[in-house]
Write a structure and sequence with these properties.
By secondary structure, the protein is of the alpha/beta class. The chain is built from 5 helices and 20 strands.
Length: about 210
């Protein structure tokens, strides 16, 4: 047996392995088309059809907690690369380009119009116009709150309990237990004991 035999990967396998790949082959196109058709049904169900919507997500995603809520409209590329934690919630217009795994922890909150992009394109123009793409996994740990109109870019990890301010563009890892924001997103401060009472002190204690 030839131990040096070349292994030929499909474009899907290249995508999953983090290699450069071509997204418009038959296999990946058909999987994206399937996700679009499934999400068309999801996004157009009557608002009272909560159980039906949940069942669609359970079948589409790679994994999902028992209790979760994703407000329609929601869009993703494939679905099977999304792993959605228990108690996590997304407001309107969440978009997930899940060409690589997207792992969402427990009790994560997403404001409206959040974008999660694992997909990227080469900077070199010849490579980019050839159709090559790449994808890098994203991880969002337990209890994170991502403010509305924020974008999370390929390869980013966000640590547990962290708050990402509205309108942020997250290009690098953000650690646990901090408030971060801006474009590019940077640490503003650590979360501290004062945060347990600040809202009530400002709003309710006279």
């Amino acid at each position: 047996m030839d131990m040096h035999k070349t292994i030929i990967k499909t474009e899907k396998q290249k995508m999953i392995d983090g290699d450069l790949y071509l997204a418009f082959g038959k296999e990946l196109e058909s999987e994206r088309q399937y996700a679009k058709e499934v999400l068309f049904d999801y996004n157009n169900l009557h608002p009272s059809k909560v159980d039906e919507r949940d069942n669609i997500i359970k079948k589409l995603f790679g994994g999902v907690g028992k209790e979760f809520y994703i407000e329609p409209p929601f869009r993703c590329d494939y679905g099977y690369n999304i792993f959605w934690g228990e108690g996590s919630y997304a407001n309107y217009n969440l978009t997930v380009l899940d060409c690589a795994p997207v792992k969402i922890g427990k009790n994560v909150l997403f404001g409206p119009n959040v974008n999660i992009f694992t997909a990227g394109h080469p900077i070199d123009v010849k490579m980019r116009t050839s159709g090559l793409e790449y994808a890098i996994a994203i991880s969002i740990e337990d209890n994170v709150w991502v403010g509305g109109n924020s974008t999370i870019n390929p390869g980013v990890s966000i640590g547990e309990n962290t708050v990402i301010a509205s309108g942020s563009v997250v290009t690098k890892d953000i650690p646990s237990n901090v408030v971060a924001g801006g474009n590019p997103c940077r640490i503003i401060r650590e979360i501290n004991e004062d945060d347990k009472i600040r809202y009530f002190k400002d709003r309710y204690i006279k």
